[in-house]
Amino acid sequence: MSVKIDNLQIYYTTLRGEVKAVDGVTFSIGDGEIMGLAGESGCGKSTLGNGLIYLEGRMRHAGGHVTLDGKELPIGDAKAMEQHRLRSVSIIPQYAMSALNPTRKIGRMTADLLKSRGVDYKSVLEEFRRRVALVGLPADVLERYPFELSGGMRQRATMVISTLLNPSLLIGDEVTSALDVSTQRAVGEMFMEFRDRGYVKSTIVITHDLSILAQIADTILIMYAGKLAEKADAQTIVNNPLHPYTQQLLASLPEVGLRYDEAPLVGIPGRPPSLLDPPKGCRFRDRCPVAFEQCTAEPPFVELHPGHQVACWKAIQDAQSFNEEPAAQGAGR
Amino acid sequence: MRRYFFKKIVTYIVTFFVATTIDWAIPHLMPGNPVEIYLGRFNISSNTQYLALQKTISEAFGVNVPLWRQYLDFWNGVLHWNFGVSFYATAPVTHVIAQAVPYTLALLIPAIVLSYVLGNRIGAMAARRKVLDNVVLPIGYLFQAAPFAWLALALSYFLAVRLRWFPPSLGSDPGIGVGWNWAFIWSAIRHWFLPFLSVFLVSFGGWAIGMRNLVIYELETDYARYLRSLGASQRLVRRYAYRNAVLPQLSGLALALGVVVGGNIVTEVVFQYPGLGHLIFLAISDEDFFLLQGIFLFIIIGVLVANFIIDIAYVLIDPRTRLSMTGATA
Ligand SMILES: Nc1ncnc2c1ncn2[C@@H]1O[C@H](COP(=O)(O)OP(=O)(O)O)[C@@H](O)[C@H]1O
Ligand code: SF4
Ligand SMILES: [Mg+2]
After folding, report:
1. What CATH number should be reported for the domain holding residue A167?
2. Residues 132-171, chain A: which have Cβ within 8 Å of B?
3. Can you say how many angstroms the Cα of residue B152 is from the centroid of all Cα atoms in its chain?
4. Of A93, A292, B128, B301, whose CB neighbour count within 10 A is largest?
5. What would the pLDDT profile of B172-225 be if each residue is shown by its tens digit?
6. Cβ–Cβ gap A102/B240 under 8 Å
């Protein structure tokens, strides 16, 4: 397992108290794996993604560990973290279209960045050019200013720059969100291409849109209100989700959900809770159609089937009765 | 590129034309006739003598012809660098202005350039050093908000009247003749310092605060966050932030020129410093229309030239204007 995250907590310090945006998450990602990270807006996806590379201003590493390629990644230590950035962990940020300095040519900016990291630009220039061509950008992009490119081109340029030093872990935050459907597909395929060519080992693709993940992700992790809700391989999540939240997310998507006739699609009623003072017990409880007494306690994130983890009392109960049923029938005979 | 400059130059010419026309029109539209005012200075008892003088003077001032003719004559004068005669000095306006211009330029150019350069540097430093920020911010606001006259009077009172470190007025010691000798130069520098400092400090406060806020803003932009996320050095991020923050400061400089020129007039009056500002004051109190016209025309030209230089500098450092001008980009 190349990336292991163990009970990670990342909080924002605000005047009104701590926002527990990532509140104890545990999972791992294998080499060559593309993991989708999905959930509604405000569930802590970006905080988790950013937290793995750069804790800015108000962000605090409140607990837990991250292991990358068998070594601890010192995410809470800004100084120690510096050498890992770009080389072993990298990010395509949510704001990728505005991530490039408007007054520097793209090649020059990349050279400045690499120089400040102690990398000789000339030694990677040939590879840089190759990858620029690979993502379908014209060769003269290096000589252009960001404002001379379309938003989609800027984003692809950012993808190439972020992965230039072949990081072990790449985080792509809402990379497909602002794009039309066909461009979304193309960008999604670029993640697979980068993985297949070994430019990156493990990839986290953050999105609030499950349909794109169904096409490109190997596994999907569903987050809700700073906690993990469900994780399984992509097909299982799409075809056989166990957490009521995942089920509702899928039902709100006509492309992937089974029932086209339910259009016009509506979001899930209600909103995620505030993470300033999150509710006790299951955080999805007040929006959950099948909540029951046990849900006032926090459900554990457990593996109910091989490779399929869920944090839901109802799912646990169903799994138990499913396991008990054949035994009961056998006893009746 | 060429089209851009062509458009710019046309704009400048039109501005110059309009401003100069206004400069001509104001004294002509004001109540009172310059000839009468001029003659009013002398005690002329005889009516015939008065009428004769009036005729001569009207011809000398060129006001004995219809207004449109006077307007054309005025442009003719402008193009030949001839603005008429100053009543106050009874000398050609161009001579009077030429004597005052070195003093004003000696105040304005160092004050503008130094306040801009130092203000930017120190503002940028304040943006990332809390201690410095706590000093620069209040002082900057104080100077920036101080009216030119107030600051000039305060400096004059403390540093000249109370402490006697500097002379309180004039451009040099009256006892020393103007010339290229050390006695005069030293005296000129001592007289120059306080008016310079007044103009410098007011502008400096504005630039420092502007730069501080811009750099803080730039350090929070997406490109700065991206660079930090990828482990770029602080130096690189700051360099980019500084460079990008300079652009709005430079446009601000073009806008601020008018304010500084205005403030400079007040400052020169307070220190009786013999530049154009002081000359304006004298010309107004003497109702010396031709001199006033000439000075304003000179200021118009100066501000336009300075703006043009800033325009060119902006184009050189901002690729966005540079490239949008070629029209070759999307
Ligand atoms: N800078 C911040 N300061 C305080 N709270 C924040 C900040 N950024 C995000 N949050 C809070 O953290 C939670 C998770 O946000 P985020 O990670 O951006 O979610 P997502 O990416 O899933 O939309 C939200 O409740 C949000 O309000
Ligand atoms: S634990 Fe309870 S409230 Fe939470 S999702 Fe499951 S059933 Fe719903
Ligand atoms: Mg987000």
Report:
1. 3.40.50.300
2. 145, 147-148, 150, 158, 161-162
3. 16
4. A93
5. 877 777 777 888 888 889 889 999 999 999 899 999 999 999 999 999 999 999
6. no
Q: Is A231 inside a domain boundary? A: no
Helices (H), chain B: 2-29, 34-40, 47-61, 67-79, 93-126, 130-145, 148-155, 182-219, 222-229, 234-271, 276-285, 289-317, 319-326
Shared domain check, A258 and A151: no
pTM of the model: 0.84
* Model confidence pLDDT, tens digit, residues A158-171: 999 999 999 999 99
How far apart CA B90 and CA B271 sit, in angstroms, is 24
Contact predicate A102/A149, CB 8 Å: no
Q: Is B250 at the interface with chain A, CB within 8 A? A: no
Q: Report which of A268, A247, A250 is spatially closest to residue A312, judged by C-alpha positions.
A: A247
d(CA A55, CA B69): 74
Contact B202/B146 with Cβ under 8 angstroms? Answer: yes
- Give ipTM to 2 decimals: 0.89
HEC letters along B171-197 = CCCCCCCCCCCHHHHHHHHHHHHHHHH
Q: Is residue B248 part of a domain?
A: yes
Query: In the block, which residue shows the tokens 């890992």?
Result: A84
Q: What's the CA gap between A217 and A36, in Å, rounded?
A: 6
Question: How many domains in chain B?
Answer: 2
Q: How many domains does chain A have?
A: 2
